[in-house]
Write a sequence for this structure.
């Protein structure tokens, strides 16, 4: 994963740090810190949604690739393609289910 790709880890980090800043700013009466915390939390929310969307797209691609390969294997009687296709399809389904 490159630094330009959305990351759930950094998203959760921004959400947590944003909540800490927001609450600390509120407790100290520091409106600037509170506002910065809200903004950082919103950034984390946006990163998380982007990461989820990316993982969903990868899962869909894996499922499609698997379905095509498995179908071709069935039509041609190629057991290796059948197995590889099923594996890709299941990998895509698992990626989608784990995309919380």
């Amino acid at each position: 994963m490159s630094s330009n790709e959305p990351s759930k880890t950094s998203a959760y980090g921004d959400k947590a740090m944003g909540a800490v800043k927001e609450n600390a700013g509120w407790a100290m009466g520091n409106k600037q810190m509170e506002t910065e915390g809200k903004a950082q939390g919103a950034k984390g929310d946006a990163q998380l949604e982007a990461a989820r969307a990316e993982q969903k797209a990868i899962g869909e691609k894996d499922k499609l690739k698997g379905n095509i390969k498995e179908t071709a294997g069935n039509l041609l009687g190629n057991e290796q393609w059948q197995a590889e296709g099923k594996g890709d399809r299941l990998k895509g389904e698992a990626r989608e289910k784990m995309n919380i």
Remarks:
- The two ends are 18 Å apart (CA to CA).
- The chain is about 85% helix and 0% strand.
- The CA atoms of residues 76 and 82 lie 9 Å apart.
